């Protein structure tokens, strides 16, 4: 277990909100991707200040959305930002070994996985994703409300994990939900 946190959960939320504000007015990415930071993270390792669990949607790029550079965010992506043992293991690693004190489940507007859960009966492996989303949204048919319910469900799944619960108790780890609005770039913390 890492003894020294990178920053508190409250400080991490502030950094994310400030980075999103910077992103809203940017024309290009602004996170540090310099040779210096690449060499530093190679030599000293990573120290991300937040864990972002988000969708695989190509329009959702957490490093850009939060104006973060190399080594600042520990990003876990899966269509529909659903949670299973693989995501929980990744969160456990980042919180327990890298000192992250904040987990953000970042859903987004116009989510294809949520739309598929509402409007179709997919087959194959996609069904594993849509079945989990259906469990989260129940009978909700409004895409935005359904996406918010899906985020909240993922937050609850993370908080139910015994390992994550132990890390929360020991370190003050926080788990929060947020929605990225594709249409204007803003992030709304739920």
Question: Would you kindly provide a written description of the structure presented here, covering whatever features stand out?
Answer:
The protein has a five-stranded mixed beta sheet with strand order 2-1-3-4-5. The longest helix has 18 residues, at 143-160. Helix 5 (112-119) packs across helix 6 (126-137) and helix 6 (126-137) crosses helix 7. Helix content is 48%, strand content 14%. The protein has helices at 9-24, 35-44, 62-65, 85-97, 112-119, 126-137, 143-160, 162-171, and strands spanning 50-54, 73-77, 102-108, 174-180, 187-189. It is α/β, with parallel strands linked by helices. It has one domain (9-189): Carbonic anhydrase (Beta-carbonic Anhydrase, Chain A).
Keyphrases for this structure?
single chain; 190 residues; alpha/beta; Beta-carbonic Anhydrase, Chain A; five-stranded mixed β-sheet; 8 helices; 5 strands; 48% helix; globular
Return the domain count: 1
Approximately how much beta-strand content do the residues carry?
Answer: 5-15%
Mean pLDDT rating: 92
Distance between the termini: 29 Å
Helix and strand string, N-terminal first? HHEHEHEHHHHEE
Q: pLDDT below 50 for ≥5 consecutive residues: which ranges?
A: none
The number of helical segments is 8
- Can you count the beta strands? 5
Question: Strand order across the biggest sheet?
Answer: 2-1-3-4-5
CATH class descriptor: Alpha Beta
How does the overall form come out from the CA principal axes? globular
Largest sheet: 5 strands, mixed
